[in-house]
Amino acid sequence: KEAQKLAAARHSLDWKAICCDELMSQPPPFPPAFKSVIDSLYGMLTNHLLGQTIFENQPGLDEFVHSVSDRAGR
Question: How would you write the chain as a 3-class SS string?
């Protein structure tokens, strides 16, 4: 939030650089299970939105949603 405030005061959109370079702060890395979900999200959405297989071995939208719900324990 502090980096975003500084960027706004400077009329800049690059709050991420302020966060990393000036405030020496970075978010913690994603847990491995979450990263694998995000990695498959891109391929699944690309295939779904284009209506064709661009990325092989990706689940369909419904299958993806169910697998994420199952991982979340819902």
Answer: CHHHHHHHHCCCCCHHHHHHHHCCCCCCCCCHHHHHHHHHHHHHHHHHHHCCCCCCCCCCHHHHHHHHHHHCCC
Q: What Cα–Cα distance (Å) separates residue 35 from each residue in 9, 24, 38, 50?
A: 33, 23, 5, 23
pTM: 0.54
Alpha carbon separation from 68 to 43, 57, 63, 73 (Å, rounded)? 15, 16, 9, 9
Per-residue pLDDT of the chain (74 residues; tens, 9 = 90+): 999 999 999 999 999 999 999 999 988 888 887 888 888 899 999 999 999 999 999 989 998 888 887 776 65
| Cβ-contact 33, 70 below 8 angstroms | no
